[in-house]
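Sequence and structure are kept together here, with a separate record for every protein. An example record follows, reproduced without changes.
>
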Amino acid sequence: MSGTTKTGRSTWRNWAGNVTARPVREVSPASTQELADVVRKAAEDGLKVKAVGTGHSFTAAAATDGVLIRPDLLTGIREIDRTAMTVTVEAGTPLKRLNAALAREGLSLTNMGDIMDQTVAGATSTGTHGTGRESASIAAQIKALELVTADGSLLTCSEKENPEVFAAARIGLGALGVVAAITFSVEPVFLLTAREEPMTFDKVTADFEALFAENEHFEFYWFPHTGNCNTKRNNRSAGPAAPPGRISGWIEDELLSNGLFQLACSLGQAVPGTIPAIAKISSRALSARTYTDIPYKVFTSPRRVRFVEMEYALPREAAVGALREVKAMIERSPLRVSFPVEVRTAPADDIALSTASGRESAYIAVHLYRGTPYQSYFTAVERIMTAHGGRPHWGKVHTRDAEYFAEVYPRFGEFTALRDRLDPERLFGNDYLRRVLGD
């Protein structure tokens, strides 16, 4: 099977529609060899090269006016090793395909985020994560990866092979090369019991450390303009499986979380004054429920309402204070916020540019409905987050630059030195990387 090339400038758009790019050509390589050829040819033609995933980043991390590599044909499971308990997949494989295929084999990733439309390479390269007391981001579950570097050669890295590249490339922002394949650690499939329950803002924030300590995976959403939150605890279960009923599941996941929410957001965008009243109603519409299922059916949920998002990782002990500051800021401002604020956690990990690198972290994510001006809200939230030494998610809206990152990432210099070695000519560069990594 061979790949396809499309020349002439057509417009590429990300999922949220806030980033566009007009590459000279788009290429869909069908093998690692073809991928290497594409990279070499771009270098010969003096064109920058970027690989895109499904466009779920809100930043211009993947934008290029040079050669755009689409991942559509680089998909599928290459190997399942039941002795090592690993799975090797092509870089363009969507997470939802990986999750379903692993489940059929009686296997699962340990933890994941709540959206599974992304490709494995796109999700890991930007540091996508779920929530967990001990289990970390998707990138932290990588055991090995294959990288096509600027000279067109294939570099395999793991803890044993090219370990200094492995330490950085698991969250590489597309700056070190193009990921061709990833090997993840997997485990026998297990059951999780999810307990979703409304709780007041004051109670969640007062009990946050206890809720974190008592649950394997804890997260909560606060509805601005209200004192209401919805909490979610996921813990391993001996079973039996008890998935949500078809109708009640549809009501919660589709009608409330997508259908009515879409209507509420549209109304709020048209008439911002209605947002506080809508928030009070929708924050009370969610009822407590408990269900048990295999991991990806519990961790992930469909997200059809399009939005723009900013998320910061803070030292975990700073999260509650920062969230209270966000609440106070919204209450004294004219802002009308229709989207809940999401709080999750992660253990410290050892990846150079991971938002949880070297520190126990909590994440605060703010969203606005697509098309709503977000600058004033996000700027005000960002001011609070940076005062706490926050690290923004690489794939979400932020205004930070290399100078800031050098301060909040102890291993920032290690990453940029590796980039100088692997891509001295900045073949994989773009405006976003120039801003966040420097020249």
About this structure: The radius of gyration is 21 Å. The chain is about 30% helix and 25% strand. The first strand starts at residue 4 and ends at 7.
